[in-house]
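ugh ok fine here u go
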Amino acid sequence: MTSITRRDFVKAAALAPVALTHLAGGTAHADAQQGSRPVAPAEPFDYVFAGAGHNALVCAAYVAKAGFKVLVLEGRALIGGGAKTAEILLPGFKQDLCSSNHGGFLNNPAMRNNELPLRDYGYEWTDPEVVMHYPFLDGASLTVFLKDPERTAATIERVSKKDAATFRRLLPLRAKYLAAAPADRAKMREAILFERLGSMSGYDAGRQVWESPHMQAAGLAGGHFGAVPGSDPGSGTQAFAMMGQLDGRPMPKGGSGMLTIALGRLIEANHGVILTNKGVTRLIVESGKCVGVECADGSRYRAQKAVVSTIHVKHLIDMAPRELWGDEFVDRTELWVPEHSMFAFHFALSESPKYAMASGGTTTSAEAAILQRPESIFGLNADRARGELLALDDIPLQIVTPSSADPTRAPAGMATLKIEGTLPYELKGGAKQWDTVKEQVADKLLTYYMKLTTNITREKVLAKALFSPLDIERMNPAMWRGSVHAGDRRFNQTMAYRTKIPGLYLTGGCTGSGGSVSGNPGRGAAAAILEDAGTSLEVVVNKGRTA
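structure:
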């Protein structure tokens, strides 16, 4: 990877098929594949969007709703970025390629206030009763039940009566602290507790709060979904991961990609155009202003008002003369810190995984989180520093089986399974070593996982598709170095929506509130664009609404 430039990597990725060649024939509806009508390069558009991740689509939906003519260009065969679903295993098995949980997006005003009527375009969700299950090899387990703290605490009581009492005591205090305005928190006793614990590592905070190693490990496993290891300072809120999960982890019916399908339909209903297999590789700058983009196939599209980019800044900076960006942008980009890189191993199963309950019987769960020993969390940074894979015996794993809650995800009686977590991007010998070792790594983790179920054996694994950190970057160059959230979210390294280059705006995981499926960067960028265009987000949202 070090022998080519970032721009070369983006151009090669845009021209190549998706990491798995059969991905291009995924489950996304024909209208989400887009590009259904030809567009002449000379056709006028007000705004041209480079990339079709969910934030770009959210932004484009608001801008199109305002009456502006928008063009969205996507380098892959499917729109969606990190919110994408495809049949990469066998027919009928709808696998989320990255995100599955959409709790953040449902709290966005776009959905909460129905600013974007996505329900009308097929976006629905389910909120599983069993939110998260934490199984352990010694037979213990913890389970988070939707909006049911007492039932959740009862599972904690089986490993530690003291921890169950602590859970019941701290839960209302945490809720009070989170509900308070930032200015009021300084006066609250609860602030001393939660802010001091939050500044610690998740490991240290967990040892301060919980007696049982099971509860300490659960916090580190369930708190690791943001790809920051709980061994790092500032990760202390991971100790309360189970409390946050009580509010639920909703999943879209039919797959994470149903969000971007619905957004695509909404954009087209407002006369916008979306083209796939159009990877942007260069910004067209004339007289210091960005006036359009050039794609990997040589086609060029001009924007009468502005270009909106969701390309990772590590790639974007090479797409225009460096002197135009300004010193702050250049310095921030050069010092950009990625989170730990993610892997995702996908499997088709002949039946849903079942887990033993400490109280007896079994349960299924759309999600599980696994870590046996809290001290194992220190292995992640050690392996990353050395480019080794020595900690595989016990790393935090997120297990996603949406078909347990949404039967449309798999053929009747069968199941989808995704085992994901973080491992080093750069191995000894280079990142391309992943092409050699990923089968072995996946086999080891699958073997380990099966021990935590009561029913899954190798005979029940029907197919697999393995994405290493390098494969994830190949699939989506915006996931630079396998960082699916764009960067380490503990640090204030996000970019502003407006850039120093006139006619160029940014959105996506490198801006606003950063990564995850929240839509916040998309909505924030839309607010800036509409304000500069002489209107406002509020005017556009209220357009057509009755008083």
